[in-house]
Design a protein that fits this description.
- By secondary structure, the chain is α/β, with parallel strands linked by helices.
- The chain has eleven helices and 17 strands.
- It has an eight-stranded mixed β-sheet with strand order 8-9-6-11-5-12-13-16, with helices on both faces. A five-stranded mixed β-sheet has the order 4-3-2-1-17, with helices on one face. It has a two-stranded parallel ribbon with strand order 7-10.
- Strand 14 and strand 15 form a beta hairpin.
- Helix 3 packs across helix 11 and helix 5 packs parallel to helix 6.
- The chain is globular, with a radius of gyration of 22 Å.
- The chain starts with 5 loop residues before the first strand and ends with a strand.
Length: 371
């Protein structure tokens, strides 16, 4: 998972105990100790201060403080260590197999957010996932691939954005809420109907993807159109997808279509990173009673059947819909809300799943014995 050279500049007597303490701190998303996961890249003593550098292979900025608080007491208990300086950061490994010279050269991971049918909150999930990844420290873009119903411009609060072409060949992406965004909705009027047959729509989408001037990105989230037709197959086969997230609701008809989406990605060898269950439950604003209007445990059951993780379950909540209609997604408008915490957890799980799926690089360890 880690491609960084590990530089440990500690005395022989101190190195072993330090590594043991750090490896006893299990990362909840990687499922390994910090040393085993390759997160510990530098160790050194400056006087009586232990200097520690952590490089995570997935974005988890909100977890840095808790991790430092967990590892510090043990390190301070070691002889000769009176202070600890910890410097955590994030660096994504690269998955992309795009042809050299394409716009996707600058993109490390492309994540498809898909559903078997419409109306299950796929676009809401895609937008909030992208924003949550960015909030956790990643460089993120989003592509609205829903050719027939591009909703990303409205959800991001930029329905009137008109992209420019800085070089006459590529289209500049919008910059909003700290992420880059591209959508056919920026190029056509909101009142116009996109009356295209499948191959034409698929071709337009591929062109939009490859001719956008994407900045350097750790993740490009693609909001797929619902279904398993030409557009979905074109993207799955021609775009170097790192993985897919399937969105569903607990009701049987949505689950039946979600299964088709899982099978489609499996057939084209795209890893399914997990399931997001929207409208999972409703909490009464008056009494706090929780009920399941669309059924219970549907997402969990389909995740177990296809042996993929259930990434998270979102409530049926009025404020989620209102926030998206206003162009103020909850991840940026309500960063401390329970819903935002769920999206943040999903983002960390997606990032960690991509990191774990990458082959581990050969680790070079430089040890300097400093007394």
């Amino acid at each position: 998972m880690s491609s960084a050279t590990q530089d440990y500049r500690l005395s022989g007597d101190l190195l072993g105990p330090v590594l043991a303490i750090l490896d006893a701190v299990i990362d909840p998303y990687l499922g390994q100790g910090l040393v085993s996961a390759g997160c510990v890249t530098q160790l050194a003593m400056a006087g009586k201060t232990l200097q520690l550098t952590l490089v995570y292979p997935y974005p988890c900025k909100s977890q840095y403080a808790a991790t430092v608080a967990q590892l510090t007491p043990g390190l301070l208990g070691l002889e000769g260590v009176e202070a600890v300086e910890c410097h955590p950061s994030f660096q994504a490994g690269s998955f992309s197999t795009a042809t050299s010279g394409t716009a996707l050269d600058k993109v490390k991971h492309v994540i498809a957010v898909a559903s078997g049918k419409g109306g299950v909150g796929k676009s809401t999930t895609a937008v909030n996932l992208a924003l949550a990844l960015a909030a956790e420290g990643a460089r993120v873009g989003i592509l609205d691939a829903d050719i027939y119903g591009p909703s990303i411009p409205l959800m991001l609060g930029i329905p009137d954005f008109k992209p420019m072409s800085p070089d006459g060949k590529h289209i500049a992406a919008a910059e909003v809420h700290g992420i880059a965004a591209q959508s056919l909705g920026f190029l056509i009027s909101a009142e116009d109907a996109t009356v295209w047959r499948g191959p034409m729509a698929a071709g337009a989408l591929t062109q939009l993807l490859n001719e956008t001037q994407w900045p350097e990105l750790d993740y490009l989230v693609v909001d797929m159109p619902p279904g398993t037709g030409d557009i979905q197959l074109t993207l799955s086969q021609k775009v170097p997808l790192s993985g897919a997230v399937i969105v569903t609701t607990p009701q049987d008809i949505a689950l039946a279509d979600a299964k088709k989406g899982i099978v489609m990605f499996q057939k084209v060898d795209v890893p399914v990173l997990g399931i997001v269950e929207n409208m999972s439950f409703h909490v009464c604003s008056e009494c706090g009673h929780r009920e399941h209007p669309f059924g219970a445990d549907g997402g969990r059951k389909i995740a177990e059947r296809y042996r993929v993780p259930l990434l998270g379950a979102l409530p049926l909540q009025l404020q989620i819909r209102e926030a998206m209609d206003k162009g103020a997604p909850c991840v940026v408008a309500q960063p401390e809300s329970e819903v935002t915490q769920i999206y943040s957890d999903i983002a960390r799980k997606v990032g960690a799943a991509l990191a774990v799926s990458q082959p581990k690089a050969n680790i070079s360890i430089s040890v300097t014995d400093e007394e």
